[in-house]
Amino acid sequence: MKNVIMKxxxxxxxxPEKSGVYIFYNEQGxxxxxxxxTSLKDRLSSYINLKxxxxxxxxxxxxxxxxxxxxxTSSPEEALLLESNLIKKYKPKFNIRxxxxxxxxxxxxxxxxxxxxxITRKLKKDNSIYFGPFVDVxxxxxxxxxxRKLFKIRRCEKKLPDxxxxxxxxxxxxxxxxxNISKENYLxxxxxxxxxxxxxxKKLKDSLLKDMQKxxxxxxxxxxxxxxxxxxxxxxxxxxQRVITTQNKSFxxxxxxxxxxxxxxxxxxxxxxxxxxxxxxxxxxxGSESEILISFISEFYSKxxxxxxxxxxxxxxxxxxxxxxxxxxxxxxxxxxxIPKSGFEKDILKLAEExxxxxxxKIYFSKDKETLKEIKELLNLQKVPEYIEGYxxxxxxxxxxxxxxxxxxxxKEKKDYYRKFKIxxxxxxxxxxxxxxxxxxxxxxxxxxxxxxxxxxILIDGGRGQLNVALKVKEELNLPYKxxxxxxxxxxxxxxxxxxxxxxxxxxxxxxxxQRVRDEAHRFAKSYYKKLHKKDIIEH
Length: 540
Known about the structure:
Elements: H1 2-11, E1 20-25, E2 31-37, H2 40-46, H3 59-64, E3 67-72, H4 76-90, E4 97-98, E5 106-110, E6 116-120, E7 129-131, H5 137-149, H6 166-169, H7 183-197, H8 201-217, H9 221-239, E8 242-243, E9 251-259, E10 262-271, E11 274-284, H10 289-302, E12 310-313, H11 321-331, E13 336-338, H12 343-365, H13 368-379, E14 387-396, E15 399-409, E16 412-413, E17 419-422, H14 431-443, E18 457-461, H15 464-477, E19 483-487, E20 492-495, H16 509-539
Parallel strand pairs: 9-12, 12-13, 14-18, 18-19
Antiparallel strand pairs: 1-2, 1-3, 4-11, 5-6, 5-7, 8-11, 9-10, 10-11, 14-15, 15-16, 15-17, 19-20
Helix pairs in contact: 4-10, 4-11, 7-8, 8-9, 10-11, 14-15
């Protein structure tokens, strides 16, 4: 790493003090991290000073950086979007990112002389007005249908034709093509539709009520009745939206729920006191609470068209100045992050927590059975692996050697089956020898009351070397079980029946379950090691 840093000092002379995106590569030339910066020179310079690393803080990343590159952008807003696109493209190992990174559609209002509506997946810097992205495509289609049926916005695109179409006869178009509506009234209908999209229900209803009363005063009862029916139709839409607060407030909620090494974001959109949208988002990658929230907010809002003045969060953001700068530049407004402490705001955070817990269980555990079936197919097992054992060895400088055994039943931790092993270290410490001792001690007692289960698959924290140790024990004791090892550095799997290692995608459910088993074995071994170490200190 020292040589890389020294090289940086020469390369940094060429780096500009402009906004942009920087890219880190490992020795194999793979992209391992993508970041954004308001000043590329300042950000990249921060990596030279070991005491001044802001993003990211993980020392493992620093040790894997072989080279860097950067792309200048014309604005922080452009950098925010470019970073999101590059993370989606390369899926870097050290970036926290959304697991669901599909491209979602936008609603586009083409601002022609008589504006019209389109659904698009591309944002362009034109004169159009965009809304979205819409995660629920059915919801988007309902919105478009409302715009066309209630507000009678034309369906024909580009040039206005010189004759009416069938939608005029169906009462779903105001037919500006035959001058059936004045330009002023048509634009008012488009503006009312925009208020509906923005969830400005009160403003929209006030506008429609005013319009209805005007028609009544002018004795135009037919038009007044049409406006009344529009109000009733929109009331039905908003009736189904949950009232969060009687106060006419608009804000977003970004709630982070963590359980071990798994993370989920519960997102809620409140407009005019009503819950208009809610969705859980799975995340890939690990980091502090602050890093996870900042990564999510950066990626999520990079594709959004609008943002409220306030975003409720449940953890304090460290070094959020730059994120606020990016968002301010993109949305041309000031905004704040707030951790609610009391009143209805605290109740909303509690609601987000309840939703997050429920979604977490559904997302991460209901799919475990399907994941176990995938493991069976991947490894060509005789049966679905209901019982998976996980092993790890822990020792520092040859002292307090311990081994751990954890058990997952149908994808869930079965803690009453966990076992720990204190290893005799009178000999020179050897991880392979310690692992062999643990296996022998465990499998010599495979049929007694201490181990009242039979493993369908055994996973070891390690690589090819650890797997070979297990296979030697398997041969010596004539064991019927299948062994697999998971090496942490590149998350590579080594399976006894395959000559080559297995490389699974980072978002693979199979890999994530194996990681949960491996990480739990590591945690359990480490906790036992600390307990022995503490006891030794007290006794001496």
